[in-house]
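Hi P.,

Sorry for the delay on this. The queue was packed all week, but I finally got your sequence through. Input first:
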Amino acid sequence: MAKKTVASLQTSSKRLTKAIKMVKSQKTGAYVFVESVMTPESVDAWIAKK
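Then the structure:
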């Protein structure tokens, strides 16, 4: 189960996106949020991988 939240961040010349996904922890079984800042083109690939 993944929840997709995307916020656009724009700096001087680079356009970046902050993506947050919810993943289930292997140790506890609880859901945790994983955040990453990347280019908009790579968001879908990052969300799709486990």
